[in-house]
Amino acid sequence: MSTSLDGFDLVTPASLEEALGLLASDPAARPFAGGTDLMVQLEAGRLRAGRYVNLWDLAELRGITESPESVAVGALTTYTDIRNADVLAREYPLLVRAAEETGGTATQNRGTIGGNIANASPAADTPPALLVYDAELELRSTAGTRRVPYTAFHTAYKQMILAPGEIISRIRLPRRTGWLDYYRKVGPRRAQAISKVCFAGSIAMSGDTVADVRIALGSVAPFVVRAVQAESVLRGKSINDEAIAAAERALRSEVAPIDDLRSTAEYRLRVASNLLREFLSHSQ
Amino acid sequence: MSTAVGGSISRKDGWVKVTGRAPYAADHPIAGVAHAVAIQSTIANGRITAIATSLAENAPGVLAVIHHGNAPKLYRPENDFMSATKPGEARVVFEDDRVHYSGQYVAIIVAETLEQARYAAELVKISYAVEDPLIETDAALDSAYLPDEFFGEKLTTKRGDPDGALSGAAVTHEASYTTPIEHHNPMEPSASIAVWNGDELTLYETTQWVAGARKTVAQTLGIAEEKIHIVSPFIGGGFGCKGFVWPHSVLSAIAAKKVNRPVKLNLTRKHMFSACGHRSETKQHVRLGAERNGRLVAIDHDTVVQTSTVEEFVEACGNTSRFLYSCPNVRVRHRAVRVNVATPTPMRAPGENPGLFALESALDELAYKLNMDPVELRIVNHADVNEHTRKPWSSKYLKECYRMAAEHFEWARRALQPESMRDGNVLVGWGMATATYPGIRSPGAAKVRLLQDGSVDVISATQDMGGGTYTTMAQIAADVMGVAIERIRTVLGDSLLPPAPVSGGSMTTASILPAIRKAAQDALSKLRQLAATMPASPFTNRPHDDIVAEGGRVFPKGADPSSGLAYEDVLKRTNQSEIEGEGYTGPGPERDKFAFQSFGAHFVEVKVDPEIATVQVSRVVSAFDVGRIVNPKTARSQGYSGVIMGIGMALMEHTVYDSRDGSIVTSNLADYAIPVNADAHSIDILFVDKPDPFIDSDGLGARGVGEITVTGVAPAIANAVYHATGRRIRDLPITPDKLL
Prior knowledge:
The complex is a heterodimer.
Chain A: E1 8-11, H1 16-25, E2 30-32, H2 38-43, E3 50-54, E4 64-66, E5 70-74, H3 79-84, H4 86-91, H5 93-101, H6 105-110, H7 113-119, H8 126-132, E6 136-141, E7 144-149, E8 154-156, E9 159-160, E10 167-174, E11 179-186, E12 197-206, E13 209-218, E14 225-226, H9 228-234, H10 241-254, H11 265-283
Parallel strand pairs in A: 1-3, 2-3
Antiparallel strand pairs in A: 4-5, 5-10, 6-7, 6-10, 8-9, 11-12, 12-13, 13-14
Helix pairs in contact in A: 9-10, 10-11
Chain B: H1 14-18, E1 34-40, E2 46-52, H2 54-57, E3 62-67, E4 98-99, E5 105-111, H3 114-123, E6 125-130, H4 137-140, E7 149-150, E8 153-154, E9 157-159, H5 162-167, E10 171-179, E11 191-197, E12 200-205, H6 210-221, E13 228-231, H7 247-259, E14 263-266, H8 269-275, E15 282-290, E16 296-308, E17 330-339, H9 352-370, H10 374-380, E18 385-386, E19 391-392, H11 398-409, E20 421-423, E21 426-438, E22 444-451, E23 456-459, H12 469-481, E24 488-491, H13 508-532, E25 547-550, E26 553-556, E27 565-566, H14 567-573, E28 578-585, H15 590-593, E29 597-608, E30 615-625, H16 632-651, E31 682-687, H17 713-725, H18 736-739
Parallel strand pairs in B: 1-14, 12-13, 16-17, 23-24, 30-31
Antiparallel strand pairs in B: 1-5, 2-4, 2-6, 3-5, 7-8, 9-17, 10-15, 11-12, 11-14, 15-16, 18-19, 20-21, 21-29, 22-23, 22-28, 25-26, 26-27, 29-30
C-alpha cells in the first residue's frame, strides 16, 4: 500500500513534440497513457516515484488510419476504440477478440494498445494478435521516428528495445487477404481473467498446402512469443497428422512456460500444443 | 384479504440501492471525521521488538499512532455466542507484542485525510523477532487435537459399529476429499465509523448482528452496553464474515477516543483477507459401506480442519453425515490443528457446505460401484426420521425435491456411464447432489407502528445483508394490517430497535416474521380498543372485541366495512399520532419434539472442453424444501446466489498462502477468482413451498433459504465433471490443470 505522492510529478504536455522533449530531458521520466497498469502499481506501492508524462490528451497518438498497404492504429487507441472499429473487425478480427477479452468496461475505456505493448506482460492479450498480423511499431523520440517489426520488440521479461525518451506512437498492420484466423484465451473464468494460455494463429492455404502461417502465444514464456519454428515446419506442407505432430514438437521446444499462481508449466505446455492442433485441424 | 406473503414482490430497498442513495457503512456523512489506516503484521509468528513511530507522528496531518505499547486497556469479552458476545477472535487487538498470523493489526494511524494516514502508515518501522510459522495443515498434523463441542454440538459421535459394518459390507468406498481456504469477499469491505458524544459511542458498521456488535464492543471497551449505539442499515454482502465482531470495530472506537473526534476506518480488499475470517481448509476422509441394493450400512466421516492460535473455530464438516441418510452405523470425528493463519469464521453453511462436498462426492462414487442411478441411491437411503436425534422431522419433502428437479432437468435421459455424452467435440456430464441446512429459529422482537397518515412502520433490530428482509418484513405486516405494501416502511439495522438475532444460520425469516405478525396483531388490537373509546361513532357502546380492524378499516363486527372508519380516521378523531404494537416470539417445546431441517437437490450439467479442460456449468436445476416461500422473487435470488457461489467453490476459489512467511498471495480480486456473469448460465430454482407446520405457532411455516442453496452445489458439479470425463477430482477447486 502506498499513497504518498511525494516525489510523483505528472506533467501534461500540450503536444507530442513537447511530450518527447520532456521525456528526452529526463531519462527517468516515464510515459503515462491510460493508467490501467501504472495505477495498480501505485496502489500496490510498487510504482517508482519520479516524473510521469501524461500522453492521454495527445491527438497525434490517436486514431485509426487506412492506406492501401496498411492500417495504422494510434498507440492511444483504447480497447473500446478497437472494439468499435469496423476496419479492424473486418480485417483483423483477432485484435478485436483480444480487446473484448481484456478486463472489464472501465479498463477497456482507459487501457490503450500502446500501453498493453509497453507494459510487456507475458500474459497480455493483444500482443499475440499483433504478432500474427506482422505488426510493425512506429517509435518516436526527439531523435526521430523509426520502425521496428513487433517480433523484435520484446527481448526478455519486461525488457524491450525502447530507447530512453522513446515511445510507441503507432502500430502498423499490413493489409492482407486469404488468411484464416484463430484465437483462444484460457483463463480461470470466462471474462475478466488473467490468461493461463493465450493462443493466436493465422494461416494462408494454397490448395492443400500451407502457403504461410503465423502462430503466437501469451503466458508460455517470459514475453509473448511467435512460434517461428512451428511455423517453418508447417510452411509448404499439407496439414496431416504427421505435419501437426511435427509442429507440436517444434512448438514445445520453443516455449518455456512456468509454474505459477495461475497455472502449471505442464498444463500450459499441453494446452498450447492442443490449441495448435485445434487451430490446424480447423484449417484443414 | 391481502396476499403479500407468497407474492413476488420487488425489493423495497432496491430503488435506493440502484440509485446509489443507500448509505453503506463508510458512506455516512460525519462532520469532522478523521481517517484511520490499520497496519498489518508482515510476519506470521513472533514478537514485535520495536515500533518506530516518530517519522509517522511528524508526518503531515497525523493525529495519532496507536499500537500495543500505548493502546488503552481493553478487555476480553465473554466470547459466548448465546449471550451475544462473540468476537471473531478471543484475543483483543493490541493486547501484547505477540504476532499470531500475517495480517494481524499491529498499529493504527489516524490523520486528517485518508491519503495522509496511508502515507504515514508507510513511515512506521516495525521490528520483529521472527519465529517459524506453522501454515499448512499437513505440517501441523502431529499437534492435531479433538475439540469437544462446537455451538453445543458434539464433534465426535458414534452410533452402532461402523468398523464392523464396514468389514462386513458387500460394497465399500473410501476416499479423501479436500477443500481449500476460501474467503467470503463481500462487495462491501468492512468499515467502521466511531463517533463519541461524551461517554456515549455511535458506531456506523456493516454488521450482520447489531446486538452482538453492541455487547461485544461494550465489553471490550469496558463500558456499559447502553452507552453504545450500532447503526447498520445496509450491508453489501456478508456471507458470515460480518457476523462475529472483529477488531476493526474496536480500533475505530479507541482511535476516535484518542483524537477526540469521529474516526473512519475503511478496510481494503487486502485487509479483508485477514481481518474478518475465512472458511478453513478441510481434509476429510470418508468410508462408506453398503449392501448390494444400495442400503448404507456404515458411514465414517473423519475431518481435519484448521483453527488459529487465538480462537477455536471448527468447520464441523461431518455433523450432517449423522442424519442426512438412514444408516445404522455412523462415526463422525473432527480434529483441529492450530496454525499461524487468521481465525476462520462461518462462511455460508459452515460445516454443511464442505462436508457435503465429501459426503455427496463419496455417495456418487458408491453409486458407480453399485451401478445404480445416484438419485435412486439417495432415495433408497432416505431418512424417515433424524436418526441422530431420533426425532421425527417437522416436515420433509426431500423426495419431492429430487422428483421436481429431476423432471425439470430431464434426468431420465442421462446415460449411466461416464464419458458417454457429447455435444460436438465437447464432453457433457450430468451430476446431482443433495442439499441440506437446519431450520434454526431464535427469539426475536418487533414493533409495528400505525401512523396518523395510515402508513405503517415495521421495526426490528434485525439486518438485511441482501437477502430481502426489508421486503419480507413489510409483506407480513401488509397481510395482517391490510395495508398496501407501498405504505409500509421497514426500519432495521439499528441496536436501539427491538432485539433480534444475528443474520446468520438462515434464521431471520423464522425468527423475525412471527414477531412482526404478533406486533401487527397487537397494533390492530390497540386500534380496536381505541375505537371503542370514541364517542359519537359507529363504535359507541361496543366492546373492543365486537369491533373489527382489517383491510385498512375499523368497523362493527358483522357490519359492512364501509360503515366504519379508515385506520387513520380513528387516530385523527382520537387525537392519537400513532399506535404501536409489540411482538416477541421464539422457539418453544416443539424443538424438543421435532427435528427442523431444510432439504434440496441440485442437478447440474457441465460441458468440458477436452483440449483445455475448462469446465462450463451450462445448466443447473435446484429444488428446495424450505417450508413456505414468503417471497418467490427474493427466494429465487438466494437460489441463484447460492448456485453461483457454489460454482466459484467448485471451479475457482482458493486462497493461497506462502508457507514460508504466512502471507496471502491471492489477496485481491484479480488473483482470487470468483465467478462473473459469463460463468453463470441457465439456473432454474424451484421450491416445494409447503409450510412447516411446527416451526412457528403462527401458521407461517417458513424456515429460511439463505444458506441451503450453496450446499451440495460443488459436489453436484464434481459429480457432473466425473460423468463427463471419467476423472474424479476430490480436491477443490477443479481447475483445468487438475483435469487435463
